[in-house]
Amino acid sequence: MSSGGAEDDIPQGERKTVTDFCYLLDKSKQLFNGLRDLPQYGQKQWQSYFGRTFDVYTKLWKFQQQHRQVLDNRYGLKRWQIGEIASKIGQLYYHYYLRTSETSYLNEAFSFYSAIRQRSYYSQVNKEDRPELVVKKLRYYARFIVVCLLLNKMDVVKDLVKELSDEIEDYTHRFNTEDQVEWNLVLQEVAAFVEADPVMVLNDDNTIVITSNRLAETGAPLLEQGMIVGQLTLADALIIGNCNNQVKFSELTVDMFRMLQALEREPMNLASQMNKPGMQESTEKPARRENPHKYLLYKPTFSQLYSFLAAAFKELPANSVLLIYLSATGVFPSGRSDSEGTIKECSLILGCRYSLKI
C-alpha cells in the first residue's frame, strides 16, 4: 500500500481487504513454518496443526481469488506471490500423502502444481534481480517432479526436467551463487532416476505403457486355500534406504520408490470424483481407503531408526502387522574377503504368513 496522503484516498472497504489479506498471508506463513517443528513420527500429534494450516491457506486462496482486482491495484499483488500460495498448498497436499499414505492427495498436489505451470505464475521471476525468487521457482520444479514421479506421469517429468535444466542454466548464468553445484547435482539425480525407473512396456501398436507397482481395484491377488480375509491387517511399514551408492532423488531411492508403491492403491482423481475443479475447492478430503501407513527413512541414524520403530509399534492396532524393509550396504567383517560370501546388500521384510488386507 502507498503511504502518506495517497493512503487516505483509499476507500475503507478496499483498505480492509488489503489488511485482511496481509493478516491471512502472515498467519499462513507462520503456520507453515511451524510444520517443521512437528514430530516426524506418530500419526496423531500432527493432525490438528495440519488442519489449522490447511484451513488458513484455503481461506487465503479463496480470498485472493475473490479480491484479485483490489489486491492488484492497492497491494501490488504479483503473479509469483499467487504461485507461492498455490505451491504451499501443493506442498501441504503432498505432506498429507506422506502422513496418511492416501494416494489421492497426490492428485490434489499435482492439480495445484500443474496450475502454477499452466498459468505461468512464476514466468516474471526471471526478470527480477532477486536470486531468492528464482530459487523458489527451482524448488517448485523439484517438488513437482517428485509428485509426477509418484504418479508415474513420465511424459510430464521429462518436460519438467528439460524446463528445470533451462532454468538452472539461466540462474547460474545470471547469478554467481554458491548453490550452482547443488542444483546441477539435482539435475543429475533426477536424470539418473528417470533412466532407472519405471519399467516401460510396449503395446501391440508399439506405444509405450508405463507400468505401476500399485494395487488396482480389480488387481487384488486371490487368497490361498484356507486363508481368511481380515485375520491380519498390514497397518504400518518402515521403508529404509541405507546404501552408500544408489540411484535416488529427493531422499527417495529407486527401491524405496518401488516398495512404497507396492503398499498403495492406485490414486483416485478427486476432482472428477466430486465433479469439482481441484483449484476451486481445496478443503474436500477423500474417502479414507486405509492404505498402510508408511515411514520413509533415507540413511537414518540408529537412534532415529529406533525412535520411528518404537512409535510404529506403540500405535500398531490389534491384529495388525508392521512391515520393515531395509536396503543397506553390508559391512565386511575383519579377516574375511569378498570371496567368502560377505553380503553386500540386504533387504529385510518382517511379517506373518497370512493374507494381508491392504
From TrEMBL:
Note the Pfam families from the entry: SCAI
Out of the domains of life, which is the source?
A: Eukaryota
Which biological process, per GO, is one annotated for this protein?
DNA-templated transcription
Q: Which GO terms describe its molecular function?
A: transcription corepressor activity
Q: What is the name attached to this protein's record?
A: Suppressor of cancer cell invasion
